[in-house]
Write a structure and sequence with these properties.
By secondary structure, this protein is mainly alpha-helical. Helices cover 70% and strands 0% of the residues.
Amino acid sequence: MPLTLFRDRNRWGMLLLAVGPMGAFFLVTLFMQHILAYSRIQTGLAWLPFAVGIAVSSGVASKLVSRFAPRAIGAAGMLIAAGGMFWLSTTGVSANYALNLLPGIFLTAFRFGLGFMPLTLTAVRGVREQESGIASALLNAAQQLGVALGLALLSTVAVVARASDALVQRYSIGLMADALILVVAAIITALVINARPQSSGEESTPTH
C-alpha cells in the first residue's frame, strides 16, 4: 500500500462523516421498539423516509459540487443532521411519528447526501490510476471505522447515563451527544478539508 495516500488529509474527512449515524440508528430504533412499542416491520417502515432524504440531498449535492468547496457542502450536511438529531432527542413517550420522528429522520438523511457525494469525490481525486482501487478501499475502511466508533461512543453515553434516569432520557442524552458530535465534526471538516469545488466533467488527475 502506498503510504503517500495517507498524506492527503481530505481522505480522512470520510471518517468524520461516518461517526455518529449508526449509533443514532441504534438508539432511535430501540426507542421505537421499547418506548413506542413498534413492531419490527413498523420500525423498518418508519425509516423509509430516510432513503427519500438521501435521494433529495444527493440531488442537491450534485448541483452544488461544481460551485462550492466539499468542506462547505459536507459541513452544511452535518449541521442539518445535527438539527435532526436534536429534534429526535426531544421526543417523549407520547411521540407522534409524523410530528416528532419524521422530521428528524428526514433531516438526518441530509448528512449522507450532502456529505458523502462531495467528500467521496474528494477522497479519490488526484490519485494515480493504478492506485484508485486502494484509495477506494481506504475510503471504505475509514467509513467502517467511523461507524464502529460512533456506535460504541453513543451506546456508551446512553448506557452510562445516571441510573435514576428513565429509559427515554437515556436515549435523549445519547441523541443530544450525537448532535454535539455532528457540530464538532462540521467544524473540523470546515478546517481540515481543503479541496476545491469539482470542475464540470473533471476526472481524477494523476499525481507523480
